[in-house]
């Protein structure tokens, strides 16, 4: 088995799980957004965010958000992350578009590897 084949199989294996998490994220975000929460999040203050995340559905949304969005790919993501903070689906679309542009026009970009120091 070549490293490239292992890489491809690994990617294909996790894609359904990423898709499920994205669908859960969209569902949880939609169900946790009430007019009161939307108003508080449109002009956020720390107390409003704490109150929002104190709700079970909102906390689950935040956790799924961290699981779905936490990855290092070598693709420039600052703008996508900012959009995710204010409008999650727009950030996701922005990241998909940026990843496509990076792959299409800068194919030599290397994947950034995360090295965790041992304690």
Rg from alpha-carbon coordinates: 17 Å
Summing up helix and strand content along with how strands pair, one would put the structural category as mainly alpha
Total E-strand runs? 0
Roughly how many Å apart are the termini? 33 Å
Count of helix runs: 6
Mean of all residue-level pLDDT scores:
75
Strand count, sense and barrel status of the largest sheet are: none
Tell me the helix content.
Answer: over 70%
Outline, from the CA principal axes? Answer: elongated
Spans where pLDDT lies below 50 across 5 or more residues = 111-119
What would you note in describing this structure?
It is a single chain. Helices cover 73% and strands 0% of the residues. It starts with a helix and ends in a 14-residue tail after the last helix. It has 6 helices and no strands.
What brief labels describe this structure?
single chain, 0% strand, disordered C terminus
What layout of secondary structure does this protein have?
Blueprint: H1 3-32, H2 35-42, H3 46-53, H4 56-69, H5 78-86, H6 88-105
Helix pairs in contact: 1-4, 5-6
């Amino acid at each position: 088995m070549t490293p490239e084949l292992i890489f491809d199989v690994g990617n294909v294996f996790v894609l359904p799980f990423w898709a499920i998490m994205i669908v859960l994220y969209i569902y949880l975000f939609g169900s946790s957004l009430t007019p009161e929460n939307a108003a508080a999040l449109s002009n956020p203050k720390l107390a409003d965010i704490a109150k929002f995340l104190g709700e079970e559905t909102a906390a689950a949304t935040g956790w799924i958000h961290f699981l779905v969005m936490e990855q290092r790919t070598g693709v420039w993501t600052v703008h996508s992350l900012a959009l995710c903070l204010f409008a999650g689906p727009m950030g996701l679309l922005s990241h998909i578009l940026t990843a496509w542009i990076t792959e299409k026009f800068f194919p030599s970009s290397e994947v950034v590897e995360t090295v965790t120091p041992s304690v």
